[in-house]
Design goal:
heterodimer, A: 216 residues, mainly alpha, Cytochrome Bc1 Complex, Chain D, domain 2, globular, B: 405 residues, mainly beta, Neuraminidase, five-stranded mixed beta sheet, four-stranded antiparallel beta sheet
């Protein structure tokens, strides 16, 4: 004998559970093997020339690292070390880092404060950007309320030029990524204009204060 | 400007716009809306604000001293230690013929070889950059590795661990990635068995997917073995009957308690186990199962719990554990992500006695406290002395579980 879920409608229990889940604060997981912020500060000396002393880059070609989740920064260093992500300037820096170095650097940068974006927000771009972000499910991974995936970077306030470059490379299939081809697939349908709108939208998005769960 | 010229310009502009709209219109209409990330596919609108997401893999293995192995509770007489660490994302294991343990991974892309040198256990990386090399099997001096795109083999590998040969491609799979990281096991027929998972959470899969299949070690003779299997990454053959048993991951985003992950028995080739039409043997899918009945499909042997993520699935036929464990099935459960209260994160046993319902019992638990993940039991391999190796792909370590009277 088989039972049937009511077509197209989930049981009430699911909806109630969803409400509970949506309002619950995501638990902060234990970071086994977490790095040391002070050790990371010492080790970040060579990084400052490009990424800024406190992880806030003044070079539009170089991303800011301040406030990025530890998992994201650490995983990108792993990808650089393994050659899965390549950049002529960055790759040599990844080559000789140990797991402990990466953990310390990631912890240091996660603890730094990102600045407010300096470019004034353009209302038209903001609306178009918001719509594109919705259509392309950016908030699925890049939003603040999610407990995971915690290896996804915050985009708000990031360098416009850097974001454009990453989206172009994801679309071209030349940007190595961690988990299958999630960003590569997501970038395929984007036109060059849409890439620029999305990058401008996120670059101008105000950085929310650090709260449990983080920011977009 | 003359009226005629202005009119002509207006016509030209309108025509260009209209032509542009005509050209873009059908193209825009034909483009499917962009898909969400794979783990969100099939999530209904009511759950759009759910914070549930897969548990992220830490970027590096956890040093042994920081792994909370003392939290794992076992039956009386059993003991657990960290056997080897430093293997980022350690997954399926397979013994070589000269005491080497080969260990696969998923996202990390590495293959490890664990050897004993002068009383010390050493971990070597024998391959890097592979696409989710989860499946490990060894025969006649060669290590077979199942990745998402293919099965490859490293010949004469144990004599060349420091300078492994280039892998030879044995078999090439169709290109779908989701649920196509694979287990690899030898059948009693000498063939390699593996999964070809549904490339989605819930969908009508292509005929080539949602199954368990097999191939000869030289890549010839591909055959489908079991159909309607959404995502199986653990299977084994019964030590006495030599029949196939496998575990399966049910769909996501249908609630905390639905559907169960399941254990199945495939005594013969060609059975259909229900996906996507029927879940857990008794519930028709509202979208794909219309007009179908669960009685059309082979039901599961056992419901294992919702979203508990069964991975390592192995029968015990050793001599170290007490005699009641002989021929019992061990199931390592990585643990849930698509559930508001975590479940799984333990090793269970299933006692299959003919004529009796399966008996499902806890073997090792303690890998979660509330919604805090402490460890994730992944794959099982047996030591020659009958003790257990249990991999943990979250900590990148292998535990040793042994019994002393």
């Amino acid at each position: 004998m088989s039972s049937t879920l009511r077509p197209g409608v989930l049981p009430v229990a699911v909806i109630v559970a969803a409400a509970i889940v949506a309002t619950a604060v995501a638990p902060v997981p234990i970071a086994f093997g977490a790095g040391d912020v002070e050790a990371g500060r010492r080790k970040a000396g060579p990084c400052a020339a490009c990424h800024g002393a406190d992880g806030n880059s003044t070079n539009p070609a170089v991303p800011s690292l301040a406030g990025q989740p530890t998992f994201y920064t650490h995983w990108q260093l792993v990808l650089f070390r393994d050659g899965r992500r390549r950049d002529p300037q960055m790759s040599p820096f990844g080559a000789n880092l140990t797991d402990a170095d990466m953990a310390d650097l990631a912890a240091y940068y996660a603890a730094q404060r990102p600045p407010r974006p300096s470019t004034a927000s353009d209302a038209d771009t903001s609306t178009a950007g918001q719509r594109l972000a919705q259509v392309h499910h950016c908030a699925s991974c890049h939003a603040s309320e999610l407990a995971g995936p915690r290896y996804t970077p915050h985009l708000a306030g990031q360098s416009y030029a850097y974001l454009v470059k990453q989206l172009r490379e994801f679309k071209a299939g030349t940007r190595g990524e961690l988990d299958g081809a999630t960003m590569t697939s997501a970038a395929q349908p984007l036109t060059e204009q849409e890439i620029e709108i999305l990058a401008r939208f996120y670059a101008n998005l105000p950085v929310a204060p650090a709260t449990p769960g983080g920011r977009p | 400007m003359k009226v005629l010229q202005r009119t002509a310009i207006i016509f030209a502009v309108v025509f260009a716009l209209a032509a542009g709209a005509l050209w873009l219109g059908p193209v825009a209409a034909q483009q499917a809306p962009p898909a969400p990330p794979a783990w969100q596919q099939g999530r209904p609108a009511e759950l759009a604000n759910s914070p549930l997401a897969p548990v992220p893999l830490p970027p590096a293995p956890t040093p042994a001293a920081q792994i909370p192995v003392s939290k794992v509770k076992l039956p009386p007489g059993f003991n657990i230690t960290v056997w080897a660490d430093g293997m980022h994302n350690a997954r399926q294991m397979a013994w070589g013929s000269q005491g080497t343990l080969f260990v696969g991974t998923r996202v990390a892309g590495n293959v490890y070889a664990v050897v004993e040198r002068g009383g010390r256990r050493e971990v070597k990386v024998i391959a890097k950059g592979l696409t989710q090399p989860n499946g490990m099997a060894f025969k006649d001096g060669a290590l077979y590795v199942a990745t998402i795109p293919n099965i490859v083999k490293y010949e004469n590998i144990e004599a060349n661990l420091d300078n492994p040969p280039a892998p030879k491609v044995v078999y090439v799979f169709p290109p779908d990635a989701h649920h196509n990281w694979r287990f690899l096991i030898w059948g009693p027929d000498g063939k390699l068995y593996f999964n070809m998972g549904a490339p989605c959470n819930i969908c009508l899969p292509p005929d080539t997917h949602a199954n368990i299949s097999r191939v000869n070690p030289d890549g010839t003779g591909f055959e489908y073995v079991a159909f309607g299997v959404r995502n199986s990454i653990g299977a084994d053959f019964h030590p006495v009957t030599k029949e196939l048993y496998f575990t399966n991951h049910g769909r996501d985003w249908a609630g905390d308690d639905f559907p169960n992950d399941t254990l199945h028995h495939a005594p013969k080739k060609g059975l259909h186990f229900g996906y996507p039409y029927c879940h857990q043997g008794d519930t028709i899918d509202p979208d794909f199962g219309r007009g179908r009945s669960c009685s059309e499909f082979a039901p599961p042997l056992l419901k294992l719990g919702p979203h508990i993520a069964p991975v390592g699935t192995r029968f015990y036929s050793g001599n170290q554990f007490p005699p009641e464990y002989r021929n019992r099935l061990f199931i390592a459960q990585k643990g849930s992500w698509n559930r508001s209260q975590k479940l799984g994160y333990r090793v269970m046993t299933v006692d299959l006695k003919p004529g009796q319902p399966p008996k499902y019992e806890v073997f090792a638990e303690g890998c979660h406290e509330g919604n805090t993940v402490l460890c994730r039991p992944t794959y099982i391999e047996w030591m020659p002395d009958g003790s257990m190796l249990l991999s943990d792909d979250y900590h990148g370590a292998i535990y040793h579980i042994s019994y002393k009277r």
